[in-house]
Amino acid sequence: xxxxxxxxxxxxxxxxxxxxxxxxxxxxxxxxxxxxxxxxxxxxxxxxxxxxxxxxxxxxxxxxxxxxxxxxxxxxxxxxxxxxxxxxxxxxxxxxxxxxxxxxxxxxxxxxxxxxxxxxxxxxxxxxxxxxxxxxxxxxxxxxxxxxxxxxxxxxxxxxxxxxxxxxxxxx
Length: 172
What we know:
Elements: H1 5-29, H2 32-39, H3 50-108, H4 129-171
Helix pairs in contact: 3-4
């Protein structure tokens, strides 16, 4: 038996070495199903032929271009409306500035001044407080009517300009 002892011990060491190799391989292969799933390829994009892609692009262009043209015409109309509004506001500003200058000139160059209590002589016959108030109301009414006339004239000029513009557009 003495001759089999070293063979048995060598066999046992081989078995232990084989056992440790199996455990190492088992640890390495235990994650194999997950690795298979991770490494599995998936097709995320579908490949299309170039003519099909160009047809799709052309259909998009055919859809989008009319919508863009409509939006541009809407913007043009809105810009022209804003331009007309700006013109009318400038004209109104000029009108009000002219009225303001007129009022300043008339008051500084001897325009009609309303008598006040301090400037009115106490012995003026026939000018009572009610008559003074009535004169003030009449003066204010006169100014309102003048302003209304100027405003209507301005509106008339504005409409004439718009009519000329619309006629110019029709002739083009």
